[in-house]
C-alpha cells in the first residue's frame, strides 16, 4: 500500500465484450476487482489463472505481469475496480 502522506483512491468501471482482454501490464499497488456481471479471468505470470464470477472479488498483486480476460463467447463482463495509490500514479504500466 502507498506509504506517503496522501493517497489517492480511484473507483473505475470496465466493460468487456465476449473475448475481450486487457493489455499485458503491471500495477504499482494492489488492485481490487469486483465482478458485477459475467466472469473475469486473470492470468498472472508464473501462476495459475484465477477466475472470479459475478458477486465475487479478488485482489491483483502489485508488480506482477498480468492480463485479464472475458473468456466467454457470449456473455458480457462488467467489473468495478478499486485502486489506492500515491497521487498521480498511473493505474497500470503497459508491457510490450
From TrEMBL:
SUPFAM superfamilies: RmlC-like cupins. InterPro entries: Cupin_2, RmlC-like_jellyroll, RmlC_Cupin_sf. It holds the Pfam family Cupin_2. Gene3D superfamilies: Jelly Rolls. Residues 15-82 form the Cupin type-2 domain. Coiled coil: none annotated. PANTHER family: CUPIN DOMAIN PROTEIN (AFU_ORTHOLOGUE AFUA_3G13620) (PTHR38599). This is Cupin type-2 domain-containing protein. It comes from Paraburkholderia caffeinilytica.
